[in-house]
Amino acid sequence: MENLKRLVGFIVIIFGFLGFAFVTSKNHQTAPKNKIPKIGLLQLMDQPALAQIQKGVYQGLKEEGFEKGKNIKIDYQNAQGNQSNLKIMSEKFANEDVDLSIGITTPSAISLADVMDKAPIVMGAVTDPKSAGLVTNLNKPSKNITGVSDQAPLDEQLGLIKKLMPKMKTLGIIYTSSDNSAVTQYKKFKQLCQEQNIKLKAYSIANSNDLNQVSQTMAQEVDAIYVPTDNTVAGAMSTLVKNANAEKVPVFPAVDSMVKAGGVATYSVNQFKLGVMSGKMAGRLLKGEKVKETPVEFIRHGDLTINIKQAQKMGVHIPDSLIKEAQKKGELIK
Questions:
Q1: Which superkingdom, per the lineage (predicted)?
Q2: How many domains does the chain have?
């Protein structure tokens, strides 16, 4: 009898130990689900359009239930236009083992892709993800990268320029030769101009230091200037506008924030909305959605932004129909 009691006691102890081990193991397995996720947010440089995208990212994350300082950690890094900084900051995210990263602009996304091969990467405003080598299939991303494209509505933009500049003989385009997005848009815009028998004269710069001299020459040789989605030119927009104004040559940029900085008008994708879309996508991925099931997203039609004061200064007549359109869907800057 005594031996039986001892045996029963031993069995109770064993089962108790196993039960404790099971609970401990289960808690250990579920703990990561309760941890606060951390994302790395990488931005190429300071300029108004990118600032709007960044704000939109925070809003999009919030709409998916992730609020900075409450239930998500965001490591925001700005490379200040330095490509070397992009590499260092991307490696920082990799070393921190972030749960997800967001690259605002093509160079930022490429830098992240070079060092992060497992955690999801969201492209925040990448013009042509395929030509940049970031994805091979826009509808079914095969790697760990998806996101949002800021491809400008080039047809709408060229149509607007033709409507506002009916006597235009030569249209100039200026872009940064090392900016993948800008080069891609230049090639597509060139094709459109050829199809519509519009004389296009191209001017490229290596960096912002070239902009003053190149834009001075350009303004003397063309009737209007088109600027694609180009972060370098956007960051020095005041220089381009100054030189264009001196020759009474209107500037038509691809981005609404560049219209506010002295451009005349454009049909553009809303930069804040691009950020919201990127943030919402990041939130869905953090909640378990798979990258391969998350297609790259686009905004198909642009909103009309008109700078009335600049148009008047350049002698560009804006039809009432366009003014009403900008007031209804877009922005009218007076």
A1: Bacteria
A2: 2
Looking at the predicted structure, is the pLDDT value of residue 121 above 90?
A: yes
**pTM of the entire structure?**
0.77
Give me the sign of the Cα torsion angle 213, 214, 217, 223.
negative
> Do 279 and 264 share a domain, yes or no?
no
Tokens of 93: 């995210």
Both 121 and 261 in a single domain?
no
> Is residue 25 domain-resident?
no
The number of helices, as runs of H, and strands, as runs of E, in the chain is 13, 12
Tokens of 245: 């104004």
Calculate the CA 179 to chain-centre distance: 14
> Residue 116: which domain range?
37-151+271-293
DSSP state of 69: T
The radius of gyration of the chain from alpha carbons, rounded to an integer in Å, stands at 26
Q: Give me the count of residues in the chain.
A: 334
CA separation for the pair 194, 115 (Å, rounded): 40
**Which CATH number does the domain housing residue 145 bear?**
3.40.50.2300
Residues 280 and 214 in one domain: no
The Cβ-side half-sphere exposure at 226, using a 13 Å CA radius, reads 35
The model's confidence at residue 35, banded by pLDDT at 50, 70 and 90, is: confident
